[in-house]
Amino acid sequence: MTAMSATIALAGNPNAGKTTLFNALTGARQHVGNYPGVTVEKKSGTWVNGDLKLTVVDLPGTYSLTAYSPEEVAARDFLVREQPQMVVNIVDASNLERHLYLTVQFMEMGVPVLIALNMMDVAKTRGIDIRVDRLADLLGVPVIPTVARSGKGKDELMKTVAAARPSVEKKPLRLSYGEDLDSALNQMESMIIKVKSLSGVYDARWLALKFLENDRKIMAEVKTADSGLYESLVTIRDTVTDHLKKTLDTYPEAMIADYRYGYISSIMKQGVLAHRYDENRLYLSDRIDKVLVNRLAGPLIMAAVLFGLYAFTFTFSEAPVAWLENAIAWLGASADAHMADSLLKSLVISGIIDGVGGVLGFAPLIMFMFFGISILEDSGYLARVAFMLDRVFRVFGLHGSSVMAFIVSGGIAGGCAVPGVMASRTLRSPKERLATLLTVPFMNCGAKLPVFALLVGAFFSKNEAGMMMTITVISWVGALLAAKLLRVTLIRGEATPFVMELPPYRLPTFKGLLIHTFERTFQYVKKAGTTILGISILLWAMMTFPELPSDVSQGFEARKAHIEATVTDKDSAAEALAKVDAEEGEAALRHSAAGRIGSAMEGLSSLAGFDWRTNIALVGGFAAKEVIVSTLGTAYSMGEVDAEDSGSLKEALAANPGWSPLTALSLIVFTIFYAPCFVTVVCIVKESGSWKWGAFSMAFNTVAAFLISVLVYQGGRLLGF
Amino acid sequence: MTTISMRNMSVGQRGQITAVKADGEMGRRIRDMGLIRGAEVTIQGRAPLYDPVAIRIKGFTLTLRNNEADFISVEVK
Asked: Which of B29, B30, B43 to mutate to test binding with chain A, by most A CBs within 10 Å of its CB?
């Protein structure tokens, strides 16, 4: 091999052990990016051995190479455009026939393939004998047995890869798909080969095959390249499709699949594969499933596991979150002590330190959550959860796998929507995934709890537990109905088929878990960090500028000077000064841009029972929901109110004539549903791949929240509350 | 020997697929998993709410929703 920076691609079915092999080959030398134009993650790394260096690209796991999913398109485009030196196809030896279905498609494409026959150990214990040399001979590609978990076979694999010469001539596999299709293919091939702009990029017969398979992406490409050719190809395809429908009652796609499987099965029968036991006999994994997906025990165990994940994430992250918060508080305090009172100081403390602190504060949560989810995913249990809950979530246009995101976001009160939105990554169906990540912010995250605690404590103190339970139910019902609404309007469309593998249970590898966890955490800190810092500064500016006119602030200064001069008792002087400070805080807040927005909105918001103070608090809540409490404190001239200890504010609200239990209920409902905090919004943008959905979640949630609150408030008033 | 829809198979029942009447994405996903004419399948179990269904084919386990199993005809023994 001459090129030092040659690229090889790892490809294979999900669950074939592709990621494990990738980690074993590249270790920590990994880079995560995106494929051009799609939100599919592209992982690449380098394998180094002496002078030899290879770029290894981990293609998304797919079952075939059609154009139905972005993963498949990304994998296919990569192979066509980047032309990797070698495609290392990871094949599960214990599940050989089905995995070779993808291999055959690579071979039809004409890309150079090498098979890594993985999980040889599993195959052996299952009594499956594979004659590796015979398989290699019959397929005409190198086959190297591996056990990716232990790294066995990986050196031989890479030696073979490095030694392989890129063949000048592509030799695509030419299968027969039956008389009817073969003659159509020949006809189409001879036409395509004349159009150099197509046959120079693709193998002509492969292109014809994709046409017969009704591959929309390839068809569109042909249409752009040569519309005359496109018309002729469509005619040929329609004729043969009609013919197959009439004579055999089948489709070309089905026919092609039948012949591919037939080819594989004929190879298996030529002494490649032998089963020592009944191939459908039940293994340990199936016996575990007898309990774990049992009708009665299954859901109970699942509830316990999900609760366990939740407890694990939020209990274990508590300490590191506290350390970080302390470190940030210390940083804020030292800035406070060493800087003179000025706008710059306020910017550094409230804008930058609090903003960056907010980002970092979530990092341990994300780390622990992804560690837990990785265990569930890598072990195979997550697929069982999806299996058991699919029926429930499907009613609302979601998928069984959506449950994880909902739980983490606060389905059990006290979660966090940031890791929740990121947890939607485990969903492989795009529409269900989008609906999930847009509705999980309705769950009751830990930051909304202080707000509820304040309001429930002030107005519903007789039945606090019942009220908190009601709040949880309201958020679940609201989120699921919103998902349903989205799925019949903006994200409408057929449910993505559920056809899914239940992989055998496997013990996750520690290395895999760690790589997965740190990768996610680092990505979050890096990408979200910059945007969040910017928004944090913007929010600070909104609540600071414009400043009080100088005559007003001089008035406050004069009052303070007067107190200092006249009141001799130290304690009562401090008390009086704090009172003036609090009043000044209220006046400054009302004067600021946020305050003006709050006052301007009062006419509208009074329909839901909110005055300008509540409005400002809700603007502040966009930074983080618990800020609602502290902003309300400032707006009611209470000075600094700790979100965790809001006793005095509670009394003030309860005593305030402007407040009633109905107002509180309306605000609770609004807090559940309105715009997610901006950290969540940034995550939504990142996960959905578009600013559009981030903006949508802010606007849609706020409007919906407002309408529901108005309904609650006005309805309540009509009923005489 | 009777041919029934996969939805109507009971847990533990075995059979051979005689037809898969689905095209487009649904058909493709079903065939990708090896559910093609001639394949031997056994119903391994059902989710607590009866849907989806878990089936055993060529030594591994797949899940399908009932409305997807409707596309698959099986000759049962």
From this structure: B29
Cβ within 8 Å, pair B68-A499: yes
Asked if A201 and A158 sit in the same domain, the reply is no
pLDDT in tens, A9-62: 999 998 888 988 998 898 867 777 777 666 677 889 999 888 888 899 999 889
Q: For testing the chain B interface, which of A498, A501, A505, A506 should be mutated: the one with the most B CBs within 10 Å?
A: A498
In a domain, A303, yes or no: yes
Element housing A299 (H / E) = helix A297-316
Closest CA to A317 of A349, A365, A389: A365
DSSP tally for chain B: helices H, then strands E? 2, 6
CATH number of the structural domain spanning residue B24 = 2.30.30.90
Better-predicted residue by pLDDT, A310 or A652: A652
Q: Is residue A256 included in any domain, yes or no?
A: no
Average pLDDT over residues A581-595: 87
How many structural domains compose chain B? 1
* Residues A339, A344: Cα–Cα separation, whole Å: 9
Report the interhelical angle of A691-718 vs A430-439 (nearest 10°).
50
What are A348-394's pLDDT values in tens digits? 887 778 777 766 777 787 788 778 888 988 898 988 998 999 999 99
Identify the domain containing residue A96 by its residue range: 7-163
Residue whose C-alpha is closest to residue A174's, from A109, A261, A114: A109
Contact A502 B54 (CB under 8 A): yes
A258 touching B (Cβ < 8 Å) = yes
A240 plus A294 within the same structural domain: no
Say yes or no: A67 and A143 in one domain.
yes
Q: Which chain B residue's Cα is nearest to A251?
A: B23
Check CB contact under 8 Å for B65 and A68.
no
Contact A258 B37 (CB under 8 A): yes
CB contacts of B25 in chain A (<8 Å) are 68, 496-497
Res. A4 pLDDT band, cuts 50 70 90: low
Whether B1 shows a pLDDT value over 90: the answer reads: no
Encode pLDDT of A445-472 as tens digits: 888 888 888 898 889 988 888 888 889 8
A490, A688 contact by CB (below 8 A): no
Q: Looking at the structure, do residues A150 and A184 belong to the same domain, yes or no?
A: no
DSSP per-residue string spanning A501-547: EEPPP-PPPHHHHHHHHHHHHHHIIIIIHHHHHHHHHHHHHHHH-SP
Q: What is the token pair recorded at A157?
A: 């694999």
Minimal-distance CA residue of chain A relative to B26? A497
Q: Is residue A281 part of a domain?
A: no
Cβ neighbours of A68 in B, within 8 Å:
25, 28-29
> Residue B33 and residue A98: Cβ atoms within 8 Å?
yes
Enumerate the residues of chain B whose CB falls inside 8 A of the CB of residue A214.
Answer: 23-24
Interface of A with B in 352-391 (CB under 8 A): 383, 387-388, 390-391
Predicted ipTM beyond 0.90: yes
**What domain count does chain A have?**
3
CB-CB contact of A33 with A522 (8 Å): no
In what helix (H) or strand (E) does residue A663 lie, and over which residues does it extend? helix A661-673
pLDDT at A645: 67
Find chain B residues with C-beta within 8 A of A392's C-beta.
49
Same domain, A127 and A243: no
Whether A242 contacts chain B with CB within 8 A: no
Which residue segment(s) compose the domain that B68 sits in? 2-76
> Which residues in chain A have their CB less than 8 angstroms from residue B35's CB?
499
